[in-house]
Write a structure and sequence with these properties.
The structure is a single chain. By secondary structure, the chain is mainly α. It has a single domain, classed as Amino acid/polyamine transporter I (Up-down Bundle), CATH 1.20.1740.10. The chain has 15 helices and no strands. Helix 4 packs antiparallel against helix 10, helix 5 runs antiparallel to helix 13 and helix 5 packs antiparallel against helix 15. The longest helix is centred in the N-terminal third of the chain and has 44 residues. It is globular, with a radius of gyration of 19 Å. It starts with a helix and ends with a helix.
């Protein structure tokens, strides 16, 4: 059970990056649909648990050290190639969003220019990848409980100090910018792009576990915990939607309202999750093209880091809305392939 819990924590830690921890993703994909956003959270929870379980089991079954083995196994020669390309593109896109999210966090909390904040995160990410990645999964998993605790504190505060009726909150919520046409599509898109981006590392974690059952439990628990956090953050933003409307980092805004110290604790949690996700995505993207023991690896890391920084200048909120939605629609192909693979396994 311990191994399953470690895998679950690492899975959540990888997915919970800038957009989730800040509340911006939840606002656009769930809260903006009002009370129906809660239903979207339930749908997302079920899908995350099922897809997480399936991917981890496939990784364990094939004992793979790369996502390519599983992707080609479930997709075949041609669809597997297409999915491989899509996942690689997703990895870079999410890393860029992390850099932009770091810039917004440094600016909102410390008054530092967003571009300088992004540079700091890029440099930290590059330095980490140039040194040692052996303990990165444990670091990602260890930060998850801390973030969950901070979110629970903010939720409690929001519920106690709520001064809107549900009808009033619903009316304001539906006026916010949405990343999809309806709550159900929003939930599907959210799961789709997150699985597309997290599949690579989840498969590798499953491949490192010889016991298929342990891997499956870890993936399912991670998905369920991720869904629970979605619902908690969504409720938090919904009851305080009048306060966070138009804010880049909604949960950080609410934390600061409780007390400046709580705001700093939330900022630390947010930056830690951004760092974790940036390292995981950035590494997965780079090793897709060049092995880490290659003599040119360090130069490629620096080059890709600079490219990611330039792309992050578009802005955090814009990237969450545009990049993630595109990734989500394309990721439907991966979700469908995973489901078909699961059905085939059941028949066997």
């Amino acid at each position: 059970m311990k191994r399953s819990l470690q895998m679950a924590g690492a899975f959540v830690g990888l997915i919970v990056g800038a957009g989730f921890a800040s509340g911006q993703e939840i606002l656009q994909y769930f809260t903006s649909f009002g009370i129906w956003g809660i239903a979207g959270g339930v749908v997302a929870t079920a899908l995350f648990a099922f897809l997480g379980m399936t991917l981890a089991q496939l990784g364990s079954q094939l004992q793979t050290t790369s996502h390519k083995g599983v992707i080609y196994h479930i997709g075949g020669r041609y669809l597997g190639l297409a999915l491989d390309v899509l996942i690689t593109f997703f990895l870079f896109g999410v890393a860029v969003v992390m850099f932009a999210g770091a810039g917004s966090t440094f600016e909102q909390v410390f008054g530092l220019d967003a571009r300088i904040g992004s540079i700091i995160m890029v440099v930290l990410t590059i330095l980490t990848l140039l040194l040692n990645l052996k303990s990165i999964l444990n670091v990602i998993a260890s930060i998850t409980p801390y973030l969950l605790l901070v979110i629970l504190v903010i939720l409690g505060y929001s519920l106690v100090t709520m001064d809107l009726s549900i009808a009033e909150a619903n009316a304001i919520a539906v006026e916010q910018s949405s990343a999809a046409g309806n709550w159900f599509l929003g939930a599907l898109l959210y799961v789709s792009y997150n699985i597309a981006c997290g599949a690579a590392l989840l498969i590798v974690m499953g491949g490192a576990e010889k016991d298929r059952r342990v891997a499956g439990i870890g993936g399912a628990l991670g998905g369920a915990l991720l869904g629970l956090m979605i619902i908690l953050v969504n409720v938090t933003l919904f009851v305080k939607v009048d306060t966070i409307a138009g804010v880049d980092l909604p949960t950080l805004e609410l934390a600061t309202q409780i007390h400046p110290v709580v705001g700093i604790l939330m900022a630390i949690a947010l930056l830690a999750m951004i760092y974790n996700t940036a390292v995981g995505m950035f590494y997965s993207f780079t090793v897709r093209f060049i092995q880490p023991d290659h003599k040119s690896f360090k130069y490629v890391i620096v080059f890709v880091g600079i490219a990611g920084y330039v792309a992050s200048l578009v802005g955090f909120t814009t990237l969450v809305s545009k990049v993630y939605s595109t990734v989500g629609y394309l990721g439907f192909a991966l979700m469908a392939t995973i489901i078909v693979a699961w059905v085939r396994e059941r028949k066997k």
